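In response to reviewer comment 3 from the previous cycle, which asked for concrete evidence that the modeling workflow produces usable outputs, we include below a single protein chain processed end to end. The sequence was submitted unchanged, and the resulting structure tokens are shown without manual editing.
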Amino acid sequence: MRPKTLLACAASMLAATATFGVGATAPAAGQASAPAEQADVSDFLAQQLTGLSGATTVMVHGTSITAAREAVAATGMRQTGEFTRIGVVIADATRSQVEAVRARSGVTYVEGGAQPIEFFQETSNTATRGAEAAATLTGADGTPLTGRGVSVAVIDSGVDPTHPYFKEADGSSAVVANLKALCEPLTETCSVQRVPALVDTDTLSVGGHGTHVSGIVAGRPTTLTDGGRLQGAAPGAKLVSISTGAGVVILGADSALNWVLENHEAPCGAGVPASTCPPIKVTNNSYGPSGGGAFEPESATVKLQRALAAEGVVTVWAAGNDGGDGSTSLTNPPGQDPTGGILSVASYYDQDTGTREGVVSDYSSRGLATDASTWPDISAPGENITSSCRLHLAICSTGLDARNGPGALDLGTFNTISGTSMAAPHVAGIVAQLFQADPTATPADIERALKVSAHPFADGAAYESGPAGTTSYDKGHGLVDVVAAVAALG
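The workflow returned the following structure tokens.
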């Protein structure tokens, strides 16, 4: 299948602005004074400012949250929110206010908040040895290695918590927290709100993506009416869904990541025990800018995911669906972060046989062959993946293999879709399994274990030596291997 895009979007890159450093030579007498040092702006915002006549949403980064607040107030911007933990204030600003805030003391970067992004869809557990691990290995708690004791945050279009794939033995749902990132359409002001546990947040006109992705992460063992048996990568993990809707912009996605940063230890609230609602240990992010782009170390996304890694949470990114031949980097920019515990996932195709010697999907985004920092970290099954869907949802209707769930009324509740959007949640679920195997592991430990244990399938670009074994610009270190990764954790 060829890639199917949910919405148009633009890549975001840093726009370098010439500045004089602290040690710059003062201008000689009669020469013009050097311009004041200014903070850089993101490329998306720079493009916006060229034709901006009114106000737009920006994220003002400061050396501290106090510095950012003071700069926003001093320039007359209207503050609409903030990411307190990473020192970022969200505000409405005119072009002149953006230029003024760039020169304020303590401001390090100004980022556009309305940059659109897309979900990476294109339309298993045998190839990854995930099912084998669940059947033969146990976690540190002595129970089968299913991801039990871990919550996975899925930042996506939403979820249908009532879907049969999420039904527990006692009739409850595996979705333990259901949230919605609400963004005001005119100002792009976003907040994350809890919604009732049984509300379907994935019913927009182009919905279905999030429900499918969530099933790949943690679908419960299910027998379809045609006798087929399915389960997610971590069929014992819990799900925390943060819906951004189908028309997601970067500010909404960052608001979701910020919510995880502030709530990962108790995602259901302080009064809910971890046995019912475990801490979040991994986020899945199957979205990004079309066409790749440069890595932005100063972006709010990167600051948030690095703060999460420091607090023990792994961040998983879909590499993207732009294909490529290694002549340029097309991978999802935040997935290029070298910080331990931030993973970029390419799509592997087992050719519908469960083989471990399959191929790299044609659509899977490649990195620049001469720049290993842009390469995916690892590959996971992403092509022809059957998971939870409902035919009335647009994304689910694109699948060509509608199947009925276990109940008499579960008609068309599963379908087959492809994309790196489907590869990433395999890895997110596997990360949950690894944290169950070793709850003391750090995000960097998890990444290293996945890389050194990956199965080096032969298709595609040649492998080259890297810090954690051999790797390649199209498939990273190879196909994820759950059994070997558990052993590598030691």
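Residues 1-35 have pLDDT under 50 and may be disordered. We consider this sufficient to address the reviewer's concern, and the full set will be provided in the supplementary archive.
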